[in-house]
What we know:
Layout: H1 2-26, H2 29-33, H3 37-41, H4 51-58, H5 65-73
Amino acid sequence: MKTTKRIAVAACLAALAMPMAALAQGQGPVATACQEDIPKLCAGLEHGQGAVRKCLEANKEKVSPGCKTALESTGPGQGMGAGQGPGSPR
């Protein structure tokens, strides 16, 4: 009986952790710093597939200074941005 209760508790905790992880991803430094830039420059794009970040990277010259800093200091390679990752020609 104890094992069944432990499994039930573990399943409940796992179910609660999944939405929290998704929420944390949606509220990262880029989402926070770029909250005003996203609707202006990247409206209608689905969150969670990288499309919004790619859009922001493509429009980096138009984003706010705080958004630009967040893009340059987080994500793929911290400051590598689109086309500047490891193995990309420099």
